[in-house]
Structures are given as C-alpha cells and as structure tokens.
Amino acid sequence: MLLSLLTCREALKHLDDYLDRELSERDLVLVEKHLRICRHCARQFSDEAAFIRNLRSKMNRIEAPTGLLAKIAAGLETGAVTPDQEVG
Amino acid sequence: MSSDNGKSDFEALLGGIMNAAYGMALHLARNTDDAEDLLQEASVRAFTAFSTYQAGTNFKAWFFRILINHFLNDLKRRDSRPQQIQVEAEDDGMYDNATGSSWFRRKQDPAHMLLDGLDAGEIKAAFAALPEDFRVVALLYFFDEFSYQQIAEVVGRPVGTVRSRLHRARKILQTQLRSLAAEKGIVPATE
Questions:
Q1: How many cross-chain Cβ pairs, A to B, lie less than 8 Å apart?
Q2: Which residue on chain A is closest to B126 by alpha carbon?
Q3: Chain A residues within 8 A (CB-CB) of chain B?
Q4: Which residues of A touch B61 (CB under 8 A)?
Q5: Are B80 and B172 in contact (CB under 8 A)?
Q6: pLDDT tens per residue, range B35-94
Q7: Closest Cβ opposite residue B111 in set A51, A64, A85
Q8: CB environment A39-60: b (16+ within 10 A), e (fewer)
C-alpha cells in the first residue's frame, strides 16, 4: 500500500483521534509515519498525551459513602418519579 | 430477571458501579448532599425503567445516561445554567495531589510540571467552570475514561458532536490550567 506523507497541519487534525485510539488503521499508519519524521509534531502529540494521562491520574477514584447503596435500595420502590422527566 | 421485579438484579448492577456513579454525581452536583439526592433520584428512575435495560449490555453507560439526563432536566427546570461557577479551592480529596515526580522528570514533562503544581481545588474549579454540555462530556472522558461512542450513547448526541465538544473542553481546560500555572510561576507565562 502506497501512503503519502501528511503535512503537519493534517497530522495535527488527527491529534485527538490518535490519542483516543479512534483513528482508522490507514490514518493511524499515516500519523505514525509523520511522527517518526517530525520532531515538532511528535513533541506536541507527546505533551497532549501526557496532559490527558496526568489529569486522569489526578482524578481520584471517589468512594461512595458506606450505606448509600442500602439507602438507595430501600427507597427504590417508594420513590416517586414525576412524569415530566425523561427516563432512559 | 429475579422474582422481585428485578430489584435484586438492579441492586447488584448498581452496586458494581456505585463508586463511579457517586463520583459522577458528586462532580455534577458539586456537594455531597446534592450528589446523594441526585444519585437516589436517578436510581429510582433507572429502576422504574429497568425493563428497558438489555441484560449483558453496558449498565454503566445506560445508568449514566439516566443520571445525566435527570441532572440536566433538573437544571433546566430550575432555569439556572451556571456557566462560570466559583468553586472553593480547598483540597477536599476529590483529586489526587500527588507530587512524587522528581524535578528532572517534571522538567522533561511539561504536563507533569503544570499539573503537579496545581491543587485539587484548582483542577476541580477548572472543570466546574466549563459550560455544562462540555463539562458532562469532559467528565465522562477524563473521570470515567469513556470512549467517544460510549459518551455519545450517554449524552444522546452523535459521535461527531462529542468529538468536537471534547476537543473544545480539552482546549479550555488546558488554557485555564496553564494560565493558572503561569500565574503561580509553575510554568513560564509565554508557554
């Protein structure tokens, strides 16, 4: 398969999808090819990936208060649902 | 489905995602009392609609859709869509404030340098300041690590809309956090 090289602008358009693994196989090959030859874009992609990774790592997994599930379960059959709200 | 109208099945599924559901409710409602109320009300709604849930599919995505719809509907009803909310910048343990990386490592990694210098309240405030539609998408992406497709299912919007909202949310967060880091002298103002 003969693939042309992406320009920096084209590569950056794919940045989000690349980081989130949403690219097609063909586009993935094209982006990776570009990153191998363009240090500037490689740095930018790496910084963006680090930002996402580090922000996620700072967002602690929060624990629900003890007893909340039981409280919710107890209210399941007695809780009223107003008809004006969408369900599901 | 179990003989108790699915209550035990529902409880088991909810129990499996309880921490994530509470975390999302806490991010949306911004305080523990409102988060518990939100989660309780959403659970009643979800249980009422439990017959529409297809066993074996993603319960978390199904439940989050109900939770978020309930939150947004409630917000609309109150007619108070907060676009810029001041959140107390105290460290309430919602985010990890780890600072374990070395100077050298931080020097090599601008994202580490930027985020390590910001505290929990500052990151929380940056999320809270996002416009509501962006905030929900950003929370599902950063907090729950949902894929574009999963976020699209939860918020009931096309993947393209999710992609563009997420892109803008990321940019806003980066700009806000970088600007805050520059104010605190963590990163150069021009970076």
A1: 130
A2: A55
A3: 16-17, 20, 22, 47, 50-65, 68-69, 71-73, 75-77, 79-81, 85-88
A4: none
A5: no
A6: 999 999 999 999 999 999 999 899 999 999 999 999 988 877 775 555 444 443 333 444
A7: A51
A8: eebeebbeebebbbebbeebbe
φ, ψ of residue B182 to 5 degrees: the values are -70, -40
Look at the alpha carbons of B121, A57, B134, B171 in this order and tell me if their dihedral is positive or negative: positive
**What's the pLDDT score for residue B158?**
96
Residue type at B77? R
Residues of chain A contacting residue B7, judged by C-beta atoms under 8 Å apart: 73, 76-77
Q: How far apart are CA B45 and CA B4, in angstroms?
A: 17
ipTM for the complex shown: 0.75
Q: With contacts defined as CB-CB under 8 Å, which chain A residues touch B93?
A: 60
Flag whether the pTM goes above 0.90: no
Q: What is the largest CA-CA distance in chain A?
A: 65
Residue listed under structure tokens 């809309």: B161
B37, B59, B36: which is closest to B47 by C-alpha? Answer: B59
DSSP B28-88: HHSSHHHHHHHHHHHHHHHHHTGGGSPTTS-HHHHHHHHHHHHHHHHHHHHT---SS----
HSE at residue B168, side-chain half, CA atoms within 13 A, is: 13
Q: Cα distance from A33 to chain B (closest Cα, Å)? A: 23
